[in-house]
Amino acid sequence: MTNTAGKMTDLPLIPTLYPTEEQFQDPLSYLSQQDVLLAGTQFGMIKLVPPKSFNPPLAIDKDNFNFNVRLQRLNQLNLLNRCRQSFIVQLTNFNIMMFDDNHDGSKGIREPMINVLSIGRKSSTIPIFLYDLFIKILEQLVSYDSTRLITDSQDLLKLKILWKDLTDSYKYQGHVATEDLKGIFENYLSHYFEEYTKLLNMVPHSPKSVFSNDLLYKEQYPHSLLNDDTTDDEDDDDDYEECPYCQAIILQGAIDFLTSIFKCECCKRFFHQSCVQKAKYTMFKKKTSTNRWICNNCILGNGFYGFQMGSKQYILQNFINECEEDTSKSIDQLEKEFWEKVNDNSISNNPSSLIMYGADIHNSEQISGFPLSNHALEKGSSKYVSHPMNLVNLPNALGSLLPLLSNKTISGMTIPWIYVGSTFSTFCWHMEDQYTLSANYQHEGASKIWYSIPASSCEPFQKLLHSMTPDLFIKQQDLIHQLVSLVSPYDLPKSINCYKAIQNPNEYIITFPKCFHSGFNTGYNLNEAVNFTTPFWLPFGVEAVDDYKLTQRKCAFDVNELLLNLIKYMNKKGGNKQDISHVLITSCITYLRSLVFREKSLLKELRVSLPENWFTPLIKMENELVDGYEDENEDEEYIYCSHCKAICSFAFVLRFEKDKTPNRKRRRLGKMAIKQWNELSDNELDSRRILCLEDYKLQWGKTEGEEEDGNRQIDEIYVIRDLDRILKDLDSAMK
């Protein structure tokens, strides 16, 4: 990817639609009209300009509305920049340990690239980024032999085909001498490469890849390698820490603290020396002679990145006063400047690139810029309280499917969030949770710039991101859902459709299912956003369930529950009250029927048909439904599979893993709250795991070397819903 700031070309604008008063009163029907739906599908987003009569007053008290801001360092949000900068930190940490450096370990590495002369072009240089070269080498080696990687750097330097392929890969930038690439590898990467590939070869997986998560210890609260130094010691005053390997408490006042405890000088975590030395894939098991030590995650990189929160809480009016706006610059000039800051590939932290954003503002009480019934209302504003385009009401508007979730409230989806922008504050590329639609309304302020990639280009866009940083998407499988990564829309290939919008006060941006979108603010503004669903969203909601399994991301709500409730509603009302097409209903019934039959088949197989040498023959079947599952009113509504993180809609297995707390007394768990089920399953040291039936069969069904004395743990199956009754409901809905 190249820095295209300075040669930007216009992107096509999304359509702007002007609904009538009548259409605006029934927004979900309007959005479901064929012409509107086609436009939303083609462009990913549309802009709605309300009728002139719709102009709600801002119902927020600016002198009393307070919030915290997140701090955004723009050039670290550039996906490739962040990997390049993190890699320099990884190399620095490695050098400290490898060479016992009693200094910063930089070995002369100050920037993420080395400039080399371009062959045949006088005074012309080409930047060779260390991260890019390292990943290119690994990818080429995997393509040559995916079973075992070369680990000796001298052998690597003799591999002619590799260096020819590497030299050819830089031709789009200019002509690079092979000897220059070899020199950079030998001077900066060779030692790191040898230790890195030795660890990769130890992992028994095949085929090999550029990284394996087996090399990292699991972190409950991950540390970012790019955190400012000022924030690293914020928790150093704690009296205790948990060892990341065994999760046992480490008391800092213990007598043997200095001799038996390792402290990573990068992330500041404490480890038992014995745990470090027993860990299979630890790169450095001893401290340096100068008593320094750095953990695996800080040398190999965990890929984590998150926004830091500002220490100051702002009152809205004070925030507005601090947001100095340069009104002399046009939107085009601001856009060019924004992407120049994002694409700045230097490591030095430019203060002007640290931006404040009051994002995702919400609490337990309703917060909205729209007039609400429990607020003091201005004259003439009462008509907006119940209007369906008041974003408090939109998730439950006529035709929405979210009310079928038994009145569950989902913060950020069914409850609007507020966003207070400043110049260049940004929202990174993402899709809405479970591919739902979203509505974003601007109450006041400067323009917000949007970019959209429609569902038709979703797959090639994701492939592009993976190809840019392949190791990062192994370390952070759900990266596209983390809202921390930018790629300039002007750097995308023509095969990926990308569009632009400029949103101003009293305008809505509607994103359609599976639309990637991002953008930034050109000054202070105040926006509000919420998610909603329509019948045409249903196939996308079902698709999201399978997609989320691939990245082990939890769903915010159970699509299967929504579909089951839809069928119950139709049977109860005796007709199609949700204005859903017969074709769509038929496909929903077919989908549910296949799910239920699959679960019934798995249950039967587990109870009767499994070979004795595969599953334990002592599987206990719970004939009663888990008490209170469908009626519990708590923060955690669903039971999640420990492996794929999918919601267990129909049944699950409580699996007792071998060699983890084997002597723990088993107790009946049917009366546990859902939150307790999930907590025990997430505890790495607990012997119990919750698994969906599919994962239980495919991943953990095999038992080897089990004792034959009958004292082993007994796995338990819990059935959540009456599957036979569901099939009867589906049959009724088809009539």
Structural class: alpha+beta
- How large is the share of residues in beta strands? 15-25%
CATH topology of the domain at 16-75 and 312-533: Jelly Rolls
The strands making up the biggest β-sheet line up spatially as 1-2-17-14-19-12-11-3-10
Mean pLDDT over the residues: 86
* CATH architecture identity of the domain at 16-75 and 312-533: Sandwich
Taking Cα atoms only, what radius of gyration do you get, to the nearest Å?
Answer: 28 Å
Give the CATH class of the domain at 16-75 and 312-533: Mainly Beta
What composes the largest sheet? 9 strands, mixed
The DSSP helix count reads: 23
CATH superfamily name of the domain at 16-75 and 312-533? Cupin
Number of strands: 23
Helix content: 25-40%
Terminal residue distance: 56 Å
Q: Identify low-pLDDT runs.
A: 230-235, 610-619, 661-667, 703-712
Taken from the alpha-carbon principal axes, the silhouette is globular
Keywords: Iron, Metal-binding, Nucleus, Zinc, Zinc-finger
Protein name: JmjC domain-containing protein
GO biological process, one term: antisense RNA transcript catabolic process
Domain JmjN: 14-57
